[in-house]
Amino acid sequence: PTNLNHLLFGLLGSEEAWHFRKEYIESWWRPNKTRGYLFLDVAPTGDDLLPWSSSSPPYRVSDNITQLIEETKHVAPTMARMVHGIMEVFREDHEGVRWVVMGDDDSIFFVDNMVDVLARYDHTKYYYLGGQSEFIMSNHWYSFNQAFGGAGFILSYPLAKAMSKYIESCLRRYPFLRSADQITMVCISDVGVILTPLKGSHQIDLRGDISGLLSSHPKAPLMSLHHLDATDSIFPSIERRQSVRHLMKAANLDQSRMLQQVICYNRPSNWSFSISWGYSVHIYENILPRSHLQLPIETFQPWGVTPKDPPYYMLNTRWRTNDSCEAPHVFFMKNVEKTKRYEILTTYSRSSPRELLSCSYSGNHSADYISKIEVYSPRRKRIEVPRGENLGFKRSLSFVDFAKELRSSRVESRVLGGDPVRGGRGSEEAWHHRKPYIESWWRPNVTIGHLLLDVPPQGEDLLPWSLNSPPYRVSDDVPRLMNETNHVDPRVLRMVHGIMEVVREAHEGVRWVVMGDDDSIFFVDNMVDILAQYDHTKYYYFGGHSEFIMANYFFSFHQAFGGAGIILSYPLARAFANNVISCLKRYAFFRSADRTTMSCTADIGVNLSPLMGSHQSIEKTPQNKILTKYIRAWPRGIGVCLYPGSYPAEYVNEIHVYSPATKRLQINRCECCDVIHKAGSFKAAVRYRECKLDEIIA
């Protein structure tokens, strides 16, 4: 299994900055255990650096690449040095290495979590892992498809080897790029690899007080933090660099729970508790839904120049408020220790008085007198599941004591097949012209599911009902449900309630419930292959974001958009169905079915696991190939390219693409292809093949 010795770290920094940044790295570096090097621009000087501390990584001085810079007229020499560092760290030490981790001299890594996450991936394949920026404009200026280096990006050994071989030729290809992370991304793209995002990697392209973000961390292992010297101290009463060491006290005892948000309630007092383990606890004098508490409070500001109007962030937030029923009492971690009962005790103290009246709505149960909170957790690694832990709760006069037993499902590593049941949501009026969309992929007597219509079908084009369509059902009595829930939107209510109706019809042996619209087009073979990678006995909520960023902002960055399909594991779908009426009552004011579905699943303790789209081929050839034919849509209508060696393609009007008839293995690298074309011929042929190990595709 993967362990810390399989990770090689390359940290890029400057001698000038290292004088005051070294404490960030020393807070997590483990001498004689962590492998890697710090690459400085010049040799260190000064009594505070020499002799070199054994608590710091060993240093190297970066290669002199002045000749390369002059030959290419590179516009950003410092950025070129940082990219070149990938080759330098690999050259220094790579025996037994599985993963190369690159970071900055102020990157804070949580190495135990890093090892656990990387153990899930095949280190013999090409992988490029990392995190995006929280600030939308940073992704827009550079790329939504790059890893931001301060948060750390991770290369599998084969990819790092290929990169080290071709890094100088890549720097020659892109002398006009001004960002080291963008150069790295395009170099990796030239090898045929795209980014695999990691939720727990944090660039922290934010300013000011980031406690709101750290108090509502997504359900993913914390991998990294960055830019903490550009924000307020993460613990208000502790100096900035010392605050990092304070955070690492908890991390050194249990990284698996670091910043993991757990939400629980004390019903007698109408209090909601939000715990960010190892960092903070919030008490709210009201029962607030999980989906609300999971939104970070916007205590922070954007990193740089912002547009006139939001969105500013790659996440939804909630504003600070003086409403005593929604403003939290805030407590920060004061101490962490092991107990004699094989537990970890984290103690949190109030940061400052809230200075608001108590919440009258919830019965005037003030929490002003609470000065300390104690949280007990098992002294064992938290097994990551897509659902939060449950907490027992009891209250005393001076502190809150959490029950000793935390219940958490065990995840088994096994590949399972999937038999999904599908539920389509539509209207009778629309079905007259939309049914060809569904019939294009529906497989009669093979696909399991139903179409839920608002009223019974009518018309000669629908009756008798086509065997090529899914069997239909008429949705439950909406007016009755409207009266029962006081919902503002009958269409939203019908669509969300439809999940229960589909589960009610579900056949024995169903593992996954797939909800879509009456114009959703699903590629079911790919869907089965993807779902087979997950344990259907656990709680999972899958789906995709909108391509339109404002849609994610208006509704949520954390919801699945139903037209693209929402997938629930059967246990989650059943739990959802059991609670759907109470949930519709709770969110009777929502006008989006997808947002309501997200909120209902969040209240069960489950967050979205995003899925990237996939594609499916169409026709076999006698040579055990799949042939897809493409014809010109219209003349391009512009002149030919005048670059030396370029030839016009105006006369090509048909392209034949041959790909293997065998299923493509799900690896994180694209396939390569060869083009066969005779000069003057109106037809070109393209043959797919596996890329060679170190092949540059560009």
Structural commentary:
Mean pLDDT is 89; it is low at 391-418 and 614-621. This protein folds into 4 domains: 4-197, Spore Coat Polysaccharide Biosynthesis Protein SpsA, Chain A (Alpha-Beta Complex), CATH 3.90.550; 240-402; 420-610, Spore Coat Polysaccharide Biosynthesis Protein SpsA, Chain A; 625-689, no CATH class. The longest helix is centred in the first third of the chain and has 17 residues, at 157-173. The chain is built from 17 helices and 30 strands. It has 698 residues and is an alpha/beta fold. It starts with 6 loop residues before the first strand and ends in a 9-residue tail after the last strand. It has an 8-stranded mixed β-sheet with strand order 11-12-13-15-16-17-19-18, covered by helices on one side. It is flat, with a radius of gyration of 28 Å. Strand 20 (420-425), helix 11 (428-439) and strand 21 form a beta-alpha-beta unit. GO terms for molecular function: acetylglucosaminyltransferase activity.
